[in-house]
Amino acid sequence: MCNYSEYLKQKAKEEAKEEEKLEMLEQLEADHFSDKQIMRLLRVDAEHLKSLREKLQEKRAAVMAD
User: Which of 4, 14, 5, 42 shows the shortest CA–CA distance to 26?
Assistant: First the structure.
């Protein structure tokens, strides 16, 4: 990283990608895809899938609380 602004840009890109994966995960689960299929489509390993599911649960809980 050259400077702090470049770091912030990179971080924003990573967060956007993660949010996109959460949206895709939600749809894939609604369509009853298997874990193996989801991991292949999202290009994540089992640990990352677990992390995504936890984030998705937190997001759903936040929506329910509003």
Answer: 42
pLDDT tens column, 47-58: 999 999 999 999
One-letter amino acid of 47: E
pLDDT band at 43 (very low <50, low <70, confident <90, very high): very high
Going from the C-alpha of 31 to that of each of 36, 37, 44, the distances in angstroms are 14, 11, 18
Please write down the HEC assignment for all residues of the chain.
CCCHHHHHHHHHHHHHHHHHHHHHHHHHHHCCCCHHHHHHHHCCCHHHHHHHHHHHHHHHHHHHHC
The pLDDT value recorded for residue 11 is 92
In angstroms, the CA 15 to CA 2 distance is 20
